[in-house]
Write a structure and sequence with these properties.
alpha+beta; six-stranded mixed β-sheet; phosphoprotein; ligand-binding face of the semaphorins, domain 2; EGF-like domain; 17 helices; calcium; 798 residues; 42 strands; disordered N terminus
């Protein structure tokens, strides 16, 4: 059973190894017919340009292989095409080390990310690593646009916001000296809640004697300005409005704020949008309630600062908003009441670089809310990239504050960044194949919420350098039927064969097949290939490392002798089913070493002069000797005495070597047995010596000494000694014995005396009873005399 399990495990090991090889060598599996096709398979693949590289029967695709494999197969390194990608930094302005109070800089002169422009040349499968540096600049300009819901429920909030301009300007001056603020308002699409209402109701939608403005979708009240008083003045002139349903049309307003940059006045600085409401929101599809079915086009439709297409386009979707906010580097702060916190927190999870704050019932805490949200947003940097070309992938690794390293999706961001902190990102960009026929592509990487970005131009290595020196219509390719490039023919359309010698319609004919039969046999290409243009092209094995070759595909590199489950013993290569051994090895499986250094004894003699060195191992010619260099004679006199002290110290911890036992006596394996019957007997395959030795206390111990078939020294020892009694105990034992004997004699005499007394008493009693006995003298009635008298009748007394 154990052998069966061993066999199965070995078989599974071979299969897994074969699979690993098969999966690992993608170069051969690709069946590349040109150098360009080969290098697009992966960065491990190379192409041998040596015209004499291929053996008979090997197809052109055999030129494409892993680099080490090509070298082993005889391709010189100089003949291997293996291009590598490269990168150039085109713009590398250092990040700005600016402090508050220093000379004021224009926003476009402030740099927070480095480098700014690069050019990458990508080889398929080979990642190009770029390092980006990001540093939060101090006193960085901020644009903040306050977008407010002016439905009737926000009436008390409007009163507090009327003084927001100067108060917020004062608070934000602690963060930046360059701050601008703007204001916009929204209510709802006019067509939605008032489909069946009256014109008068549209002019004043509020009930009772309340004076309200007519409903509107979005109004840009104040363009971004640094004048806080103007903000207070214009906001103070605003009036609330009303609608009939609870959700508001805030998404229409956010879209217009994001895409109408000229109307809003956005600069290329930090852009904050504060969205203040006490209600939910309509999104894409809700417009159908008012008969609006056209999707939002994501364009600016402001005329006289009013959104004019609310009745024409549906609300934008959340994904559409995310796209436009990201494109325009706008960070959103949702200032909403406690009731709608769960809704907007879910929305925040969908919009990168956004925050949610709890707005008090009358918006009295709006300034603290904005400052806290800004600090939260600005303390985190998240990188995003534009759409990647097909076949291009990108990975991020961030190195953040306090040495924190993040990878995967977390590698895109760093948190808890303070002003002046510097973090870095390692970015790997990899191409697979040759995207879009090698055309140049441009991608951009930028930190979310910031206007700065890194522009990366990608170009792709789709052909080898040797392709530039191709000879078109070369005579080497059968009278010009192909281009000779990179050591092989690249056939023109409609031509096939290694030298493009055949047309596709004549690839297989009876006459051509004759050239593919060895010795006029019946097998075409030895059943290991196909006959193409009268030449054998050997088929490929499942394991790419195994190959057929030869004019008739009669050779292979995997059917040679094996040793230790290794082809050619791991000391040679298999060529046409015969092992070609490395230097110092011989044998059909290259398993015989010619090196005699392993047979040298300590006296510098080979096998101590008692044997022959064969394949690096001594074969002892004297049967009494064994061991790696024929140095051991287990049955020779003196063996027992030689090992006595070491056996004694290791088995019993006594003897002259007990203090140096570990150092001097670790040359054999010690095996303890219970008694002498358990000791090995001399019927084994290797010589064995039985030993009986005595120690200083006259104790005997028994052991065997042998060298097994693996040249390991073995000692079997009986675990207990046989010891005589000690001399000092003999008098005690003798005294005890003598005492026991005397006591026994005394007891015996006492018993004898008692028995005599008892017998005499019994005899006296018997005599007394005998004398006192009185016997009856009457005749026994049943007594008959023993005498019988017979009278002869003929007796007459005469």
């Amino acid at each position: 059973m154990d052998l069966k399990l061993l066999f199965i495990s070995a078989l599974l090991g071979i299969i897994s190894c074969s699979r690993a090889q098969q999966e690992g060598n993608e170069c051969i599996k690709a069946n590349a017919l040109s150098c360009g096709e080969c290098i697009q398979v992966g960065d491990k693949c190379g192409w041998c340009t040596d015209a004499e590289f291929l053996k008979q029967g090997e197809p052109t695709s055999a030129r494409c292989d892993e680099l080490e494999s090509l070298k082993k197969r005889g391709c010189a390194e100089a003949k291997i095409e293996n291009p590598h990608g490269s990168q150039r930094i085109l713009k590398n302005t250092p990040v700005t080390n600016r402090k508050k109070g220093a000379e004021k800089l224009r926003p476009e002169d402030i740099t927070q990310i480095q480098p700014q422009k690069l050019s990458l040349q990508l080889r398929s499968g080979e990642p190009q690593n770029i390092k980006l540096k990001f540093k939060r600049a101090e006193d960085y300009p901020i644009d903040l646009y306050y977008l407010m819901d002016l439905s009737y429920s926000m009436k008390d909030d409007l009163e507090n916001v009327k003084n927001l301009g100067t108060s917020l300007m004062k608070e934000m001056s602690k963060i930046t000296s360059d701050f601008r603020i703007g204001f916009g308002s929204f209510v709802e699409k006019t067509v939605m809640p008032y489909i069946s209402t009256t014109p008068a109701k549209l002019l004043n939608p509020c009930t009772g004697d309340q004076n309200c403005t007519s409903p509107f979708s979005y109004k840009n009240v104040l363009k971004l300005t640094s004048n806080g008083q103007r903000f207070n003045s214009l906001v103070g002139q605003q009036q609330i409005s009303g609608n009939l349903d609870s959700p508001e049309g805030g998404f229409d307003a956010i879209m217009q704020v994001a895409v109408c940059g000229e109307h809003i006045g956005w600069r290329n600085v930090t852009r904050l949008l504060v969205f203040s409401t006490d209600a939910g929101f309509h999104f894409a599809g809700d417009g159908k309630l008012g008969g609006i079915v056209l999707p939002n086009d994501g364009r600016c439709h402001l005329e006289n600062d009013m959104y004019t297409m609310s009745h024409y386009y549906d609300y934008p979707s959340i994904a559409h908003l995310v796209q436009k906010l990201s494109e325009n580097n706008i960070q959103t702060i949702f200032a909403v009441t406690e009731e709608f916190q769960p809704v907007y927190k879910e929305l925040k999870n969908l919009i990168p670089k956004s925050a949610v704050g709890t707005l008090s019932a009358n918006s009295s805490n709006v300034i603290n809310l904005i400052v806290d949200a800004y600090n939260s947003l600005s303390s985190e940097v998240i990188l995003e990239n534009s759409k990647l070309p097909e076949g291009v992938t990108i990975t991020y690794q961030s190195r953040c504050k306090n040495g924190v390293v993040n990878e995967g999706e977390s590698g895109r961001k760093c948190s808890n960044i303070s002003i002046g902190d510097e973090v870095s990102f390692n970015i790997n960009i990899t191409a697979q194949g040759c995207p879009k026929q090698g055309k140049t592509e441009t991608i951009k990487i930028k930190p979310l919420g910031f206007t700065e970005e890194v522009e990366i131009t990608l170009s792709f290595i789709c052909e080898c350098e040797c392709h530039k020196h191709a000879m078109k219509n070369s005579p080497l390719c059968h009278n010009g039927n192909g281009s000779f490039e990179c050591g092989a023919c690249r056939c023109n359309k409609g031509r096939v064969g290694r030298q493009c010698e055949c047309r596709k319609d004549e690839v297989s004919t009876e006459d051509l097949d004759k050239n593919c039969r060895k010795d006029n046999g019946t097998d075409i290409c030895s059943n290991n290939g196909e006959c193409v243009c009268g030449t054998c092209e050997c088929k490929k094995r499942e394991n790419p490392e195994e190959r057929y070759s030869g004019k008739y595909c009669e050779c292979d590199n995997f059917n040679c002798d094996r040793s230790n489950n290794k082809l050619c013993g791991g000391h040679g290569r298999c060529e046409c089913r015969v092992c070609v051994c490395d230097a110092n090895y011989t044998g059909s499986a290259c398993d015989c070493s010619l090196d005699t250094s392993t047979c040298l004894a300590s006296n510098k003699q080979i096998c101590n002069g008692r044997g022959i060195c064969e394949c690096g191992t001594c074969r002892c010619t004297d049967p009494k000797f064994q061991g790696p260099t024929c140095e051991i004679c287990p049955t020779c006199p003196g063996v027992c005495t030689e090992h006595k002290e070491c056996v004694q110290c290791r088995a019993f911890g006594t003897g002259e070597k007990k203090d140096t036992c570990k150092r001097d006596c670790s040359y054999f394996n010690l095996i303890e047995v219970e008694d002498r019957d358990k000791l090995p007997q001399p019927v084994q395959a290797f010589p064995l010596m039985h030993c009986k030795e005595r120690d200083a206390r006259d104790c005997w111990f028994y052991y065997t000494y042998a060298v097994n078939n693996n040249t390991e020294k073995e000692v079997h020892v009986v675990k207990t000694m046989e010891c005589p009694p000690g001399p000092d105990i003999i008098p005690i034992v003798a005294g005890v014995v003598a005492g026991i004997v005397l006591i026994g004699l005394a007891l015996l005499l006492i018993w004898k005396l008692l028995m005599i007394i008892h017998d005499r008493r019994e005899f006296a009693k018997f005599e007394k009873e005998k004398m006192n006995a009185k016997w009856d003298t009457g005749e026994n009635p049943i007594y008959k005399s023993a005498v019988t008298t017979v009278i002869n009748p003929k007796y007459e007394g005469k």
